[in-house]
């Protein structure tokens, strides 16, 4: 088998065999195939596409490029949740405790953030002492004892994906459905979960800006998951404006804690209800989505979810003082109130620009060497559709560096638009993709 033959075949729009896909993934991962040939193949895939079988085979080849995690020592059906990334997305922090409080094991491996989308580990490290550096035994023991553990992804998990992604990033071949789907699912499937719920974001702050494309990506990932015997569901959710009322690290953890206390934003609660219900459904703990939502709300009302979260934080070295006094999570040197320049209805709170504003303050990283400021961030006092008076605070900014504030404010001004006309916000749940159907809401 030669790489040139695979290039000819895909250039002409033909289907690649399982063996051919395995050959180029292994060859590139082991540096037998040079960048220029792999770049040519990625561009051919970008233009000619891959069918369902090819996408499943690509995912399996990437999984087999490194280690896989065996979680068989954890009792019960393990359900994982993965988000395709967004702004203000602190869902995992609250959802892990909500599902675990319903006696479903949540064994979660997460990454760090890069750019304007924050990573769950980065956020939780705002809690003094918290560490996601766990051995597999400690990780599994914790799930068996309190039902919830969160560790960092290892460098040996799907290593071919990291190499392919880096090459896609510099060859303009990122936004291809099959390549995105195989990248996401290879890491999820290598992580050892029995069932998978996917949160596919769409809107200005998401990778998939278009709703139809988000459903297409959801379908591709669900087909991969079910194609390898893992019951998988994708929920398409909105990211036209930030999720919840906060953007940052410590400030988002505070909002997740508020949700577990029965407070917080309606859109975050609705999303947690929906995703949590599907996790309980896939874990065979409930018989319907409605029953699942009732169970999720029940552990908020009776305090069990908050208790699980405290145990989780304490087990991973975190100081629960930051849960009992969550305002400590975002105490900065200074606070700035960004006020409305006119009266009317909020028409736009551009999620991507607001995420970049928080990044400018120091809440994210432009590269892996950047040190994150866990305390800075944005508090949204208004959301799309809300009426605001001239001079009323729209966004509260928590900052530690005046120079960074100036850059952040420029982006804030671009992100907020106010109009006389009433504005109805988009719904948070756009629909769901299962093995046998696609349902739009």
TrEMBL record:
<dbReference type="InterPro" id="IPR000053">
    <property type="entry name" value="Thymidine/pyrmidine_PPase"/>
</dbReference>
<dbReference type="GO" id="GO:0006213">
    <property type="term" value="P:pyrimidine nucleoside metabolic process"/>
</dbReference>
<comment type="function">
    <text>Catalyzes phosphorolysis of the pyrimidine nucleosides uridine, thymidine and 2'-deoxyuridine with the formation of the corresponding pyrimidine base and ribose-1-phosphate.</text>
</comment>
<dbReference type="GO" id="GO:0004645">
    <property type="term" value="F:1,4-alpha-oligoglucan phosphorylase activity"/>
</dbReference>
<protein>
    <recommendedName>
        <fullName>Pyrimidine-nucleoside phosphorylase</fullName>
        <ecNumber>2.4.2.2</ecNumber>
    </recommendedName>
</protein>
<keyword id="KW-0808">Transferase</keyword>
<dbReference type="InterPro" id="IPR036320">
    <property type="entry name" value="Glycosyl_Trfase_fam3_N_dom_sf"/>
</dbReference>
<keyword id="KW-0328">Glycosyltransferase</keyword>
<dbReference type="InterPro" id="IPR035902">
    <property type="entry name" value="Nuc_phospho_transferase"/>
</dbReference>
<comment type="subunit">
    <text>Homodimer.</text>
</comment>
<dbReference type="Pfam" id="PF07831">
    <property type="entry name" value="PYNP_C"/>
</dbReference>
<dbReference type="GO" id="GO:0006206">
    <property type="term" value="P:pyrimidine nucleobase metabolic process"/>
</dbReference>
<dbReference type="InterPro" id="IPR013102">
    <property type="entry name" value="PYNP_C"/>
</dbReference>
<dbReference type="Pfam" id="PF02885">
    <property type="entry name" value="Glycos_trans_3N"/>
</dbReference>
<dbReference type="GO" id="GO:0009032">
    <property type="term" value="F:thymidine phosphorylase activity"/>
</dbReference>
<dbReference type="InterPro" id="IPR018090">
    <property type="entry name" value="Pyrmidine_PPas_bac/euk"/>
</dbReference>
<dbReference type="InterPro" id="IPR017872">
    <property type="entry name" value="Pyrmidine_PPase_CS"/>
</dbReference>
<dbReference type="Pfam" id="PF00591">
    <property type="entry name" value="Glycos_transf_3"/>
</dbReference>
<dbReference type="InterPro" id="IPR000312">
    <property type="entry name" value="Glycosyl_Trfase_fam3"/>
</dbReference>
<dbReference type="InterPro" id="IPR017459">
    <property type="entry name" value="Glycosyl_Trfase_fam3_N_dom"/>
</dbReference>
<dbReference type="GO" id="GO:0005829">
    <property type="term" value="C:cytosol"/>
</dbReference>
<comment type="similarity">
    <text>Belongs to the thymidine/pyrimidine-nucleoside phosphorylase family.</text>
</comment>
<feature type="domain" description="Pyrimidine nucleoside phosphorylase C-terminal">
    <location>
        <begin position="345"/>
        <end position="419"/>
    </location>
</feature>
<dbReference type="InterPro" id="IPR036566">
    <property type="entry name" value="PYNP-like_C_sf"/>
</dbReference>
């Amino acid at each position: 088998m030669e790489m040139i033959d695979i290039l000819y075949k895909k250039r002409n729009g033909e289907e690649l065999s399982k063996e051919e896909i395995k050959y180029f993934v292994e060859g590139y991962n082991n540096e037998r195939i040079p960048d220029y040939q792999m770049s040519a193949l990625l561009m051919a895939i970008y233009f000619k596409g891959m069918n369902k079988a090819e996408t499943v085979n690509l995912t399996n080849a990437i999984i087999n490029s490194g280690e896989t995690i065996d979680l068989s020592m954890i009792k019960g059906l393990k359900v994982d949740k993965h988000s395709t990334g967004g702004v203000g997305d602190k869902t995992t922090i609250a959802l892990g405790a909500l599902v675990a409080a319903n006696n479903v094991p949540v064994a979660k491996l997460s990454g760090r953030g890069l750019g304007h989308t924050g990573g769950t580990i980065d956020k939780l490290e705002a809690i003094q002492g918290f560490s996601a550096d766990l051995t597999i035994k400690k990780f599994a023991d914790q799930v068996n004892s309190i039902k919830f553990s969160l560790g960092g992804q290892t460098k040996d998990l799907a290593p071919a994906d990291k190499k392919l992604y880096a090459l896609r990033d510099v060859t303009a071949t990122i936004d291809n459905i099959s390549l995105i789907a195989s990248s996401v699912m290879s890491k999820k499937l290598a992580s050892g979960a029995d069932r998978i719920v996917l949160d596919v974001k769409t809107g200005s702050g998401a990778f998939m800006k278009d709703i139809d494309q988000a459903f297409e990506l959801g379908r591709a990932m669900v087909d991969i998951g079910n194609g390898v015997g893992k019951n998988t569901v994708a929920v398409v959710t909105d990211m036209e404006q930030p999720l919840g009322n906060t953007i940052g690290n410590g400030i988002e953890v505070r909002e997740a804690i508020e949700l577990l206390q029965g407070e917080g934003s309606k859109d975050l609660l609705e999303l947690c209800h929906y995703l949590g219900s599907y996790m309980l459904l896939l874990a065979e703990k409930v018989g319907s989505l409605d029953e699942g939502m009732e169970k999720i709300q029940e552990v908020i009302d009776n305090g069990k979810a908050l208790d699980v979260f405290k145990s989780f934080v304490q087990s991973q070295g975190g100081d629960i003082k930051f849960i009992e006094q969550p305002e400590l999570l975002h105490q900065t040197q200074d606070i700035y109130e960004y006020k409305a320049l006119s009266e009317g209805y909020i028409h736009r709170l551009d999620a991507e620009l607001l995420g970049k504003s928080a990044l400018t303050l120091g809440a994210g990283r432009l590269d892996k060497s950047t040190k994150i400021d866990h305390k800075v961030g944005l508090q949204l006092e208004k959301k799309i559709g809300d009426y605001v008076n001239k001079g009323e605070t729209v966004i509260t900014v928590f900052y530690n560096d005046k120079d960074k504030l100036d850059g952040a404010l420029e982006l804030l001004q671009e992100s907020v638009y106010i109009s006389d006309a009433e504005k109805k916000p988009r719904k948070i749940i756009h629909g769901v993709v299962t093995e046998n159907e696609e349902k739009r809401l």
